[in-house]
Structures are given as C-alpha cells and as structure tokens.
Amino acid sequence: TEVSTRTRELVERRALRLGPNVSTFYEEPLHLVRGEGVWVWDADGNRYLDCYNNVPHVGHCHPRVVEAICRQASMLNTHTRYLHEGMLDYLDRLTATFAPELSTAILTCTGSEANDIAIRMARAVTGQTGIIATNHTYHGNTLAVSQLSRTNPPPGGHWPNVKFVPAPDSYRPLGGEGGQAHALVFAAEVERAIAELKADGFGLSAIILCPFFANEGFPDLPPGWLDPAIEVVRRAGGIVIADEVQPGFGRLGTHMWGHQRMGFVPDVVTLGKPMANGHPVGGVVTRPDAMAAFRKSFRYFNTFGGNPVSAAAAMATLSVLQDEQLMDNAREVGAHARQGLADLALRHPVIGDVRGSGLFFGTELVKSRTTREPATAYTKQVANEMRRRGVIINFLGVHYNTLKIRPPMPFSRADADLLLARLDEVLIELPLDLDA
Ligand code: PMP
C-alpha cells in the first residue's frame, strides 16, 4: 500500500527533530490516535486488533485507570519526599503477590532504572562487580544497563565486568538435547562465566535474567530448569535478579510472576512496562536485608518514582487485573490460541514450533522443519502483512524468526480466532522464498 502523505510527513519530522536511528515498527509505520480495550485506531480511522502491546495491560484506556489518574491528578501530585498513603497502599498490595521474604520495594519510572538499582543492590550485597546476562537480551537504556545487551554493542565495546552466556533455545538446544540436559549445559556456561569474572578480578555480584527469556524468543523450559544455574550462582556468592518487565503481572496465565512459574525465589525482582497500564511506573522488589545493604551503600532518591498519581495508576491497574481475573483469562485464552496455532501448523509447514504461556506466545517460522533453518525475512513480511490486514504482532528471538504475540490481558477467544484467521490468510497468500 501507498504510505500516506501524513505518515511520510511524521516520519520526516521525527528524523529532523529526534535524529537518525529512532526506530518505528513496520515498513509503513503506524500513526495511532485512539485505543480502547484490545483495539487501536489510526489517524485514517482504521481499526487494529492489538496482539502485541503489554503496556496497556488491562486494556487500552481502561476507565478505572483513567479515572484513578484523573482523580489523583486533580487532588495532588508532587515528588516523593512527603508522606503519602498512595505508594504504601500500593506496595502492600503488590508485595502480597510475592514470596513472603520479598517484602520491600522501590518505585521507579522505568524498567531501566529498576535494573540499574538491581545492579547496584547486587554490588552492595556482595561487594563484587561482575554480572552475567544472556547474549540475546535487553534490560534497558541507562549507561550501566545498556552494557547488558550484547545485540547492540556500545562504542568502545562492553564493560569487562559483564560476561554473556548463550541464550537458552528450546528448539535448537545447546548440546543437542532438551530438558534437564539443556539445563546442565546452561549451568556449565554460567560456571564458565563466573570463573572468567573471578580470574579478571571482578568477582560475581549477580546473574540477571528474564525468567521467561522473553527477548530471547521465550523458549519452552520446564519448571526447575533454571535451578542448576541458580545453584552455581549462589554457591559462588552471587545473587539472582529476575527481570519481570515482560512476563510479570499474570501474563503467563499460571502464575503472577515468571519466576514463580519456573519455581524459584529470586533475590531481586525488577518490574516495568505493564505496571500502570501506560503511565510510567517501574519497580524493584527485594528482601529487607538486600534493601538495607542498598540504602546504606547508595543515597538513592527518585523524584517521580511512585508519586501520588503514579501510585494511583499502578493501584488501579493491579485492582482491575485481580477484580477482572485477567490472569485466568490469559491462561484460558492463551491455551485456546496456542491450540489454534498448532492446528494451523498442520496445514502450514513454515510453522516450525509453537510455544509460550498464557497471553505470551508465538511461533517460529522455518524454511524446513528438518533443518529448522529460520525463515527470518519471511517472518518480517508476515508481521508487515498482518499489520496491513489490521492485526498488530511483531517478531523477535535469537534468529528474529519468532512471531511474538502478547496482547492486552482482556484478549478474548473471539479476538484469538480473528488473529488466527488473519494469520492463516497471510500464510496462504504470502509465498515463502527459500533463497531470501
Ligand atoms: N527489561 C526488559 C526485559 C525489557 O524488555 C525492557 C524494555 N523493552 C526493559 C527492561 C527496559 O524498560 P524501560 O524501557 O521501561 O526502561
């Protein structure tokens, strides 16, 4: 389709005002002007089914969240050095969803800040500076946290206190065998990274990982899979940071948090994106001893983090999530949608693997199921074609050939059926070029 004049104009204004390299999704970027529930509308009045955005967690413009923000904004908003119940009431309710020892918290404005604090906590607790992350992740945009993304190396290279381990891949497991064997190979990689950090004089402060490995392509890993790696880290004196920015807040359908689904208790948990339905709220949850070590080592103050309006937005979001039983919805609708993808796989050999949990799922597209060669160019075409047909999805993973489906939590069976019908059409009509 023709890129409209207005779209081209906005793209040019962005480049002029924001500078080069500011990314947008899609060959024809979307210009969205309105949202409601699982739907968004563009400036020309076209409606799109949102199957991708986790920030509007309880649905775009949920009236209870909108009302909570407006009510508090018209009453008081200020920085966080005065007493106010808003933040404390919210944190009482939030920490109740974690293991009892994870009872203290800090509110921030972004997931990046939360991870930055987590790294400092690990330093305060252990007295060491070495960090381990996977080689295909993203944890945020601060100077320190951006060092954890190997996919986008900073000028001058990475800080030497960061070591990378191969991202788990259940479809092509390191060592060739899945399950427990794969878990032990991963743990051995972590052990190797620890030895390097110690040899280089940094010691081990933490491993940071998303317990669902969302950016890595959400491999299918059974509960307990991380236990061997965690044991290696703890034996070496390090702590475990779980970045729950993507899988948290009930998205996986079975548990409120990704680490609960994997069956372990992290030392530090970081939160973001869906936390206040789009209002900028992130956070760190940890044990009182780790919090005390952090508070003693670093004088930390966050002007906006957990201010009265942010706290009201976060409280309303969590209340809606619980009152509308959206985690149960995620489990039920997610299972239905994955079954639908498995049915599509019977007719479309390009679908190599179907995986995920709750309303965080997708499929790897491959040129051949025998070789499992990623159909990376095709996957991008599919995402763009879905957008042209009014369905927003995207793609990621180690080979960028995994369709990522992660809709707002009120996503219904009928919504899933519409997504599946459109995907079926696209896979029928879009030819796979084996040489691309
Ligand atoms: N952690 C993970 C796993 C993320 O995916 C992101 C954002 N994509 C962040 C942290 C950073 O969050 P923010 O953009 O709010 O700083």
The CATH topology name of the largest domain reads: Aspartate Aminotransferase, domain 2
> At CATH's second level, what is the architecture of the largest domain?
3-Layer(aba) Sandwich
Mean pLDDT: 96
CATH class of the largest domain: Alpha Beta
Beta-strand percentage?
15-25%
Q: Report the end-to-end length measured between terminal Cα atoms.
A: 22 Å
Main sheet summary: 7 strands, mixed
Helix content: 25-40%
Classify the secondary structure makeup into a structural class.
alpha/beta
The rounded Rg comes to 22 Å
Please report the number of helical segments. Answer: 12
The best one-word shape is globular
Low-confidence stretches: none
- CATH homologous superfamily assignment of the largest domain: Type I PLP-dependent aspartate aminotransferase-like (Major domain)
Helix-strand string:
HEEEHHEHEEHEHEHEEHHHEEHEEEH
Major beta sheet, strand line-up:
4-10-9-8-7-5-6
Small molecules held by this entry: 4'-deoxy-4'-aminopyridoxal-5'-phosphate
How many domains, as an integer? Answer: 2
Care to count the β-strands? 15
Give a quick set of tags describing it.
436 residues, alpha/beta, Aspartate Aminotransferase, domain 1, 4-stranded mixed sheet, 12 helices, 38% helix, 15% strand, 4-aminobutyrate aminotransferase-like enzyme
Structure in a nutshell:
Helix content is 38%, strand content 15%. The chain is an alpha/beta fold and 436 residues long.
Walkthrough of the structure:
With 436 residues, the protein is α/β, with parallel strands linked by helices. The protein has 2 domains: 5-58 and 325-429, Aspartate Aminotransferase, domain 1, CATH 3.90.1150.10; 63-323, Aspartate Aminotransferase, domain 2, CATH 3.40.640. 38% of the residues lie in helices and 15% in strands. It has 12 helices and 15 strands. The protein has helices spanning 5-18, 63-73, 85-95, 111-126, 179-199, 227-235, 258-262, 288-297, 308-323, 326-347, 376-388, 413-429, and strands at residues 32-36, 39-42, 47-50, 104-108, 131-134, 162-165, 206-209, 239-243, 268-271, 282-286, 351-357, 360-365, 391-392, 394-396, 402-405. The strands form 3 sheets. The protein has a 7-stranded mixed beta sheet, sandwiched between helices. Strands 1-2-3-13 form a 4-stranded mixed beta sheet. Helix 2 (63-73) packs antiparallel against helix 9 and helix 4 (111-126) packs across helix 8. It is globular. The two termini are 22 Å apart. The mean pLDDT is 96. It binds 4'-deoxy-4'-aminopyridoxal-5'-phosphate. The site of 4'-deoxy-4'-aminopyridoxal-5'-phosphate (PMP) has 16 residues, from helix 4. 4'-deoxy-4'-aminopyridoxal-5'-phosphate binds at residues 110-112, 115, 138-141, 210, 214-215, 243, 245-246, 272, 282. Keywords: Pyridoxal phosphate. Belongs to the class-III pyridoxal-phosphate-dependent aminotransferase family. This is 4-aminobutyrate aminotransferase-like enzyme. It holds the Pfam family Aminotran_3. It comes from Hydrogenophaga palleronii.
